[in-house]
Design brief:
This protein is α+β, with helices and mostly antiparallel strands. The chain has five helices and eight strands; from the N terminus they run ββαααβββαβαββ. An eight-stranded mixed beta sheet has the order 1-2-3-4-5-6-8-7, sandwiched between helices. Helix 1 crosses helix 3. The protein is globular and about 40 Å long.
């Protein structure tokens, strides 16, 4: 299977519909932590909804409109990254992430998103990569900063999450701002 090393014990791989049982088990382990700021665990609650979510991303991938990748540590699914939006015709996309608490703090999301962003900007010729996160999600916002993104806006109380209106921050990096790979 295709995968990319993130660390000695961690791999990035395409998350596909046949991973539904593993994906659901992962959501069950991290449901509260992951769901603190995003709705993913509220949508993936059983095997049918796990399959539906993964199927939706398979369709997005087939239409060149999004992509979904898992992060495994020691062979266990612990998180993921995605192109939630991928608009090749406009040159704009949005990258996002989630992670179980056991895998947090290792830089895995930063490394995985760096791979996605580099691919989008260098291989696909995208112009702009966005990152959207709740203003309360300090870890996610710190990741955007580590990726060299700039904070551009705050959408005040635009996001209803578990009955509470939250602000969303928009961060972005442009192709002209993305650093050249080492050794070039």
């Amino acid at each position: 299977m295709f995968s990319i090393d993130l660390a000695a014990d961690a791999r990035l791989f395409p998350l596909e519909i046949w991973h539904a049982e593993e994906f659901l088990a992962h959501m069950d382990r991290g449901r509260e932590y992951i769901g603190e700021h995003i709705q993913l665990p509220d949508f993936v609650t059983d095997l049918d909804s796990a399959r539906a979510f993964l199927s939706a991303y398979a369709q997005k991938t087939a239409a060149d409109g999004g992509r979904l990748y898992g992060i495994r540590v020691d062979g266990k699914l612990v998180g993921g990254v995605l192109f939630r939006i991928f608009e090749a015709e406009t040159g704009n996309c949005e990258v996002g992430c989630w992670l179980e608490p056991a895998a947090a703090g290792r830089g895995l999301v930063t490394a995985a998103c760096r791979i996605l962003i580099d691919w989008a900007l260098r291989e696909r010729g995208m112009h702009r990569v966005e990152w959207r996160a709740s203003s309360a999600n300090h870890k996610s916002l710190a990741t955007a900063g580590r990726l060299g993104m700039k904070r551009e806006a705050v959408l005040r109380e635009n996001y209803l999450h578990r009955g509470v209106r939250q602000d969303t921050e928009i961060w972005a990096v442009l192709a002209s701002e993305w650093p050249e790979p080492a050794g070039r």
